[in-house]
Structures are given as structure tokens and as C-alpha cells.
Amino acid sequence: MAELFYVIGPSGAGKDAVLSYARGRLGGDTAVAFAHRYITRPPDHGSENHVALSGQEFACRLGKGLFAMHWRSHGLHYGIGVEIDQWLTQGMDVVVNGSRGYLDEARLKYPRLRALLITAPLAVLCERLGQRGRENSTEIKKRLERAGKFCQISHPGLITLDNSGPLHEAGEGFVRLLKEKVCG
Questions:
Q1: What is the number of domains present in the chain?
Q2: Is 0.85 surpassed by the pTM of this model?
Q3: Containing domain of residue 179, as a range?
Q4: How far apart are the C-alpha atoms of 99 and 96, rounded to whole Å?
Q5: What is the tens place of the pLDDT at every residue in 58-71?
Q6: Which H or E run contains 52?
Q7: Where are the beta strands (DSSP E) in 56-177?
Q8: Which of 47, 56, 43 is nearest to 14 (CA)?
Q9: Rg (CA), the chain
């Protein structure tokens, strides 16, 4: 039976990198679909491969029921398209880059949800956020304060992947998880 892999983690933990790694390693495996997020943020080379929408475009799509999930965080709107429901119905496992704040609501809508927390120590998060260059020092401090809340997540079957080492370690851990599901 198809499952929704709901990936969460603090800013700087490397969620996008791990997702990109796994997507590349699976080589177009038709049993797993990686959903794009729709975000009211312009495209940024080197970050998440998302669909950039204006606030007006996002509101229009939301009003027409085109999002299976949506939330607001860091002053931006995020959405996951309704296409994931069709993928799940077709028996495909679906991977989404989710939000900690939306986890409970997502779990209610998708009972077969598997939550995956990608994390790294605060020092690593701080270094990565600084290198990313999207936030100023005050915004980085706020993101690091929020990162502490990830330690308080409680979800049945929560899987945690430490991404503080080389990317291939966490990436291969995620690939193994997806392959276990597909092959097991």
C-alpha cells in the first residue's frame, strides 16, 4: 500500500540536499514520486527545486482547491499539489518536504504517513545557514531557536536521520528506507 514520506527538519539540516540525493540515486524509480513544493519565494539557484508563485497566484490556486496541503512559515506560503493524491491512488509512494507545524494535520489527512526528521547539531545548522546567505544574523538566530523545538516532536514511528556528516551517509539512509518500502 502506498505511503506518504513526510520529511521535516530544522533550517540548515540539509533536507533539500538529502531529498535531491535520494531522487538522483533512485534514478526515476516509478514506484516513488518526489513532490515539488509551491512557495511564494522566487527561485534560488542551489536551493530547493520548488515552483515559485506570487502571493496572488498562490491564493488563486488555494481557492480552486489545488493544494492537498498548505501552510505559512517564515512569512511565506507553502503548498503541496493535489497531484500527490493521484500518485498515492496509483500505488506510488510519495515524498514531500513538509513542515513540523503541519505534521499533525498531515497525519490526519494521510493515515499512512511516515514522518522522517532530518537533523544536525546546532553548530552545523548555524554554519550552513550562514553559508546559505538567505537570512541575516537575527533571522539565523530565530531559526536556530526554532531548531530546538524539533527535539520535542512526537510522532508514532518517527524516523530520524542525522545529516551532520557527509551527505551520502544520510542520503543512503533515506534511499534504504525508500527501497525497503518498495522492495519489502
A1: 1
A2: yes
A3: 4-36+84-183
A4: 10
A5: 999 999 999 999 99
A6: strand 51-52
A7: 67-73, 76-81, 93-97, 113-119, 159-162
A8: 47
A9: 16
